[in-house]
Each structure stands twice: as C-alpha cells, then as structure tokens.
Amino acid sequence: MADEKTTVRISRFLSMVLRHQPDAVGITLDEGGWVDVEVLRAACAAKGRRFSRADLDHMVATNAKQRFAFSADGRRIRANQGHSIEVDLGLAAATPPAVLYHGTAAATLPAILREGLRPMTRQDVHLSADRDTAVRVGARHGRPVVLEVDAAALAAAGHTFRVSANGVWLTDAVPAGRLRVLPDA
C-alpha cells in the first residue's frame, strides 16, 4: 500500500481527472460522473500514473475531505462534487440548515460582495455546514474570510440546495444580499 505522500499525490491527480479533465488520461465519465475502476487504473497507468486497487481503496477510505466514492458494487468510482465538467450527481433537493458558510480568500471579497457567490468554473457554489471547514477552505488561497449564508431565506425564496455524499452543500448561486462577513476567521 502507498505511503501518505503517494496517497495525496494519487488523490490530487484523480481530483483533476475525475472532476475536470478525464480526457487527460483518455477516459469518458458517464452522465453521473462514474468510471469503471479498472478502466481508470489502466488509463492512468498508460500515462505513467500507476497505482494498485489497494492504493485506490486506501485513498478513498482515508481522504479527509471524502472527495471520492465507489459505487455500491465497488466497480466504479467518481468525485463527490467539485466538477467543472457537466455531470449529474443525482442529488435530491434537501432542506439546508438555517445558516451555511463559505470560505474564501480576502482578495476575492470585494467581487463577492458586489456579485454574490457564483460557481465560477465549477457546476455549483460549495458551502459548508460549519465555520471551521470554511476557514480551512478559505486558507487554501490566502488570508481566509468566512461568509455566513442565510440559507433559510434562500430556501424560502425558492433556491434549491443539495448535499453531496461528503457533506458539502451545493447551490447554483448566492446573492450578495444573503451574505454576511464574519469577524476574523
């Protein structure tokens, strides 16, 4: 089984392949974002990225963000969310908690306060149910800022929310008027 450094490398590479560029290894995802595990492994190996099924199992099981999931029969794999390519994750509408959070870098705050949250290159805006997760997400891109999202008001106004298999809340957009900047993250 791969060491932790190798597991992280596999995770990052598969995030790119399964969320953004399946053609980078010559695979095609089905409409739900799934690909056969052995097809994926063979395609990655052909591009010099070899990993065993045990390595893949370990990566899926231990990934702190639970970015990936196996199908019920274990034969297929997909990313749980974060796609920039068109996929239908088949997630049902869900009632969100009253408040959700979004972590971002301080540099993006002026644009967000003008335009609201938009999916940008992704299919959806990603929100978290807890502030700590939002802080970690925001810190990936600089000094973190946490925005509180009035999810109850958005849901009441007809916005649709879905929750991914790993607990990330997804919606199409959040208007600036439904955001509040929290004090120091």
From TrEMBL:
This is Probable RNA 2'-phosphotransferase. Removes the 2'-phosphate from RNA via an intermediate in which the phosphate is ADP-ribosylated by NAD followed by a presumed transesterification to release the RNA and generate ADP-ribose 1''-2''-cyclic phosphate (APPR>P). May function as an ADP-ribosylase. It holds the Pfam family PTS_2-RNA. InterPro entries: Ptrans_KptA/Tpt1, RNA_2'-PTrans_C, RNA_2'-PTrans_KptA, RNA_2'-PTrans_N. Keywords: NAD, Transferase. One of its GO terms (biological process) is tRNA splicing, via endonucleolytic cleavage and ligation. GO terms for molecular function: NAD+ poly-ADP-ribosyltransferase activity; tRNA 2'-phosphotransferase activity. PANTHER family: PUTATIVE PHOSPHOTRANSFERASE, TRNA 2'-PHOSPHOTRANSFERASE 1. It comes from Actinacidiphila rubida. Belongs to the KptA/TPT1 family. NCBIfam families: PRK00819.1-4. Coiled coil: none annotated. Gene3D superfamilies: 3.20.170.30, RNA 2'-phosphotransferase, Tpt1/KptA family, N-terminal domain (1.10.10.970). Its EC number is 2.7.1.-. SUPFAM superfamilies: ADP-ribosylation (SSF56399). The keyword Transferase applies.
